[in-house]
Amino acid sequence: MDNTVASESRKSVKITLDEDYSRFGIYAYHPGEITIIRPNDAYKSDDEGFGHQTLKKETLTNSLIIMPHCLMSDWAPRTINDLAEHHFEIFSPPPQILLLGTGSAHHWPSANILGSLSNQGIAVEVMNTAAACRTYAILASDGRNVGAALLIE
C-alpha cells in the first residue's frame, strides 16, 4: 500500500458546513491556505420557491485572525518565530477563547505571549492550524465567543 497517498490526503481538511452564514466561518484547510466563509445577507429563491443563501467563500494564503464578527485576513506573522506580544493587541472585544494555530506542527509560543493574553482575560489553546480550524468551526457554530489566530506556515 502506498502510504504517501494516504498521508497526503490527511493534510487537507474540509470542515462540515454550518448553515449560519451571518458570521465568519472556516470552510476548509489545506497546508498553505485556508478557505473562509464571509457573512452573507443575500437571500435567493430557487425555481421551486425554496429560499437559500449563497455561500461566499474566499481562499486566503496569509496568516489570519478570525472571529464570528470580524476577520483580519492579513495578520503579519507567518511562523511561530515571528509572533510577538503586539500581534495580539487587536481584540476589541476580546474573545473568551483564542485558538492559536501554529502551522503544520504544534509549537508553543513564548511565555510572554501566553502571559499577555492571560492578562487580557483570554484563555488560549495552542494546536496545529488544521486542528485550530476544526475547533473554531465547532465552537463558533455553538455560538461561543471564540477567535482563531492561524499561522499559515
What is the gyration radius calculated from CA atoms?
17 Å
Q: Give the CATH class.
A: Alpha Beta
Structure classification: alpha+beta
Averaged pLDDT, please?
84
Strand order of the largest sheet: 8-7-11-9-10
Beta-strand content: 25-35%
- Number of helical segments? 3
What does this structure look like?
The structure is a single chain. The protein is α+β, with helices and mostly antiparallel strands and 153 residues long. It has a single domain, classed as Hypothetical Protein Mth938, Chain: A. Helices cover 19% and strands 29% of the residues. It has three helices and eleven strands, in the order H-E-E-E-E-E-E-E-E-E-H-E-H-E. It has a five-stranded mixed beta sheet, with helices on both faces. A four-stranded antiparallel beta sheet has the order 1-2-3-6, with helices on one face. The radius of gyration is 17 Å and the shape is globular.
Descriptors:
disordered N terminus, 4-stranded antiparallel beta sheet, alpha+beta, Hypothetical Protein Mth938, Chain: A, 5-stranded mixed beta sheet, globular, 11 strands, 153 residues
Task: Summarize this structure briefly.
By secondary structure, this protein is α+β, with helices and mostly antiparallel strands. It is 19% helix and 29% strand.
List the topology elements.
Elements: H1 3-9, E1 13-14, E2 25-30, E3 33-38, E4 44-45, E5 51-52, E6 56-60, E7 64-67, E8 70-72, E9 97-101, H2 111-119, E10 123-127, H3 129-141, E11 146-150
Parallel strand pairs: 9-10, 9-11
Antiparallel strand pairs: 1-2, 2-3, 3-6, 4-5, 7-8, 7-11
